[in-house]
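wait is this the right file?? whatever heres the structure
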């Protein structure tokens, strides 16, 4: 399904940062995509399931969760971090900062038995 990606900061992400970017708390809070419940049903994914989010530039596997607050259909939220940075476009439109909101992405259920959510050290080793 097509979706609009919005990124931002979360309380869980902040707690994870206090524990360190290599902590399990940071990993669980940042490698997650919040979705509208209806979109989850249409996609056929349950809470805790894996999805692949693709921007046309790159794709990343994330854990899906029901949104803490209501998210409109067709919108997904992912906290800022190394996972979502993998799929962000580098253009800054003269601002020096890439766009982190309103990015069109493709979301699909991750069916590969070999895929999982990479840990931060795996992401960094690919750079």
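ok assuming it is, sequence goes like this
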């Amino acid at each position: 399904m097509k979706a609009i990606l919005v990124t931002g900061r979360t309380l869980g992400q902040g707690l994870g940062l206090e524990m360190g970017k290599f902590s399990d708390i940071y990993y669980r809070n940042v490698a997650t995509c919040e979705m509208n419940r209806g979109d989850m049903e249409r996609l056929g994914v349950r809470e805790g399931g894996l999805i692949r989010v693709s921007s046309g530039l790159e794709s990343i596997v994330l854990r899906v969760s029901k949104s803490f607050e209501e998210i409109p259909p067709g919108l997904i939220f992912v906290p800022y971090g190394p996972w979502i940075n993998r799929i962000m476009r580098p253009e800054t439109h003269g601002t020096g900062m890439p766009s982190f909101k309103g990015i069109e992405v493709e979301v699909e259920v991750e069916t590969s038995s070999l895929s999982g959510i990479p840990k931060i050290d795996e992401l960094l080793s690919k750079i």
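The domain at 2-125 is CATH 2.40.40.20 (Barwin-like endoglucanases). so i think its the right one actually
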